Predict the 3D structure of the following.
Amino acid sequence: MTLLIVIIVLALVFDYINGFHDAANSIATIVATKVLSPFQAVMWAAFFNFLAYWVFGFGVADTVAKTANTMEISLLVILSGVIAAIIWNLLTWALGIPSSSSHTLIGGFAGAAIAHAISVHGFSDYTLVEHGETVTRHWYQIVNWYTAGKDGGMPSGVLIIILFIVLAPLIGMIISYFMSLWLLYSSKKSILPKLFTIALLVIVYWFIYAELLGYDEIKKHRFDSHFLSVIAEPANIKWLLVASIITSIAIFNLIFSSLSTAKSEAILKKMQLLSSASFSLGHGGNDSQKVMGIIAAAVAVYINTNPNVDLSLGWLDLNVKLPSKDALGNEVAGQMPGWIPLACYSAIALGTLSGGWKIVKTMGSKITKVTAFEGVVAESAGALTLFMTEHFKIPVSTTHTITGSIIGVGVTKRLSAVRWGVTINLLWAWVLTIPVSAVLAALIYYFLKIFI
């Protein structure tokens, strides 16, 4: 029990560090454009980080919890992964490098799990009983590298997470690039940009209406009212936020050509409040869930290794249903104890309040010059990317996402507007994060194994 509590505490410490390490993702552009002061900006971001508690489900948390097979690992594996993640986060924060807190956590978890498999089984094959069947495993299969999606859905696993090291910033860059062109096109005094905006708005509304869950499709209603239950459903809230982002930009585009430069700048600065709030929601929902997944995995491992444990241990409230399969072989989802998401969202919000000013400088000025125009587009594109990846339960880096979005805006001006030297240095940090964290976690695992 002591080791479990240590893991939970360190995981929340990591979540706190994640908050101030990644605070720059949410506030760099809004501070750079002087819409809010640094203190006001971190207060704004922290509020929406915590608000994400009521907006997002636990899809990303489930993906992270399944990074390694919880039936085969020990609490020492999770402890080693969390310690490695904390060390890498503090190191990159001290150097002012906006690396991925998400990927260091995944890398640490996977590296420690592989070290455990080698320690227990060597490099030889081994057998185990899984769902009543005896299966043969290789040492590296302790990590969930790739799992095909159900019914043609999105696959999961560490390889998919690695793939999104490239895809997340690329998606953010593409969205911000075309959003920038949309805004620039709308500044022309012509009817065609307005017709395009209206047509795009109709298509977006039609798509979102088709995606919204109806009252009968919602498994657990938050309110007695049909209307409130529908709009308060987490999956629906995300789509409504997408609609609000697109609508705000569309309304601005419809009047853009009639505005003076000073007036348009003033409106864009007000719009940054919405775009930064949306990105902060996505940041809280995406990054907090990763720590939830680690804590849930620790609880699952503890219960697996202590089958006779009392599942109602005071504040820990370990009365959790683990993932299982029914009589037909269909997977039945586990149940997250209520205190885990509440603690994680609180920790990341408190961390954001602490700021991370070295990284703010890198994100807000060193990649490209940021104005209110760039701020709205980059934050909106980043938020849309995070909502989309969360929808598919893919843990991505908010750091990578917002960096790609900022680059996409810079490219619309000219390629030389992006400081590619700084960007290449960031890319090296991104590439190295998972393998370095994995090796570090493996070394920590072998060291701790001597004493525990």
User: Anything to note?
Assistant: The longest strand covers residues 126-130. Residues 321-333, 357-368, 416-420 have pLDDT under 50 and may be disordered. Strands lie at 126-130, 133-137, 324-325, 331-332.
